[in-house]
Fold:
Amino acid sequence: MKIDHFDGLSDELLFLIFSKILDAQSLCRCSLLSKRFASLIPMVDSVLLTVPPPKSKSKSKPNPSLFFNFIAKPLIQFLHQIVLPQYSSLSFHSYENSIHRFSSEVLKKFSHITSLRIRLPRHGGELGADGSGSLLKWEAEFGRELESCLVLGAISSRKSNELPRIPKLDDSGLAADELKLRVAWMISCLLAASARHSLVKQIVVADNLIMLRNLVIEDGSKQGRLSMGEDQLKELRKRVKLQSPLERTKLPAISMKLWYAPLLEVSDSGSVMKGATVIVIRPVDQEMMKIKSDGDLLACAFHGDVEGEGFCEAVKDLVKEKKPYLMEMDSF
Structure:
């Protein structure tokens, strides 16, 4: 007679084990093993949902060299994030709907989720994925609409020991083409964030997620991260309708502060960034919003990221050394 060693474990200990697993699909598979497991797993309150890449009938990929150039590249990369070059037959709505169907099917098995992290598939179109050493990172906070967005970018980012020598670059400021590139970075990040917010609208209305207090949506390459806390989720629930059409969240008129250095040496991490750029983005009309100050936003930049310490240091160094450019943009 076989002995089930799990029988010797208390429900409390089993629940603690399940709570450490995090991965939603693994937990769902565990719930199929026994009625006891099936009764405990729905009570897990912290879950990571990894979304698989969409299936495609076509395996052909477009030649990016026909389209990419120095200024347009970031915007085209955003389109790759939504349409995906290897899944070009998929529209924005069909892809977003497929993510929503998958997440709903998995998450309906949980009834007490308070913290949810959703990881979207890596698609290969991210800036720097081609081995060029370029960098683009962003993180955004939303309530019913955009509250803040922080962007860190660089034409190249490498360890100082990988460079034969560090050339002296002109520090006269941003040229017109360089400014256009950074505006393109900013727009691509904002559009990606607003597209993820449209997915959040579908998630928060689910009956089994009324206890949700913390939500993060990131991509497999960890280029961008959207986060929402308890108050922001409550605010969104009041305004979203169950049967509302799936649309990208419209971005309000925004103000921007942009810091730039042609060359930034980050001493502690040993990195050298060429064309280093930090952008803080906020709604122009933010009087009614409870949002972080610029100082708080910059101080906690990219915390929780595997490489976050080096990125946070780069943000602090650049902001400390340079004066910002100020810009505004209409809603879109």
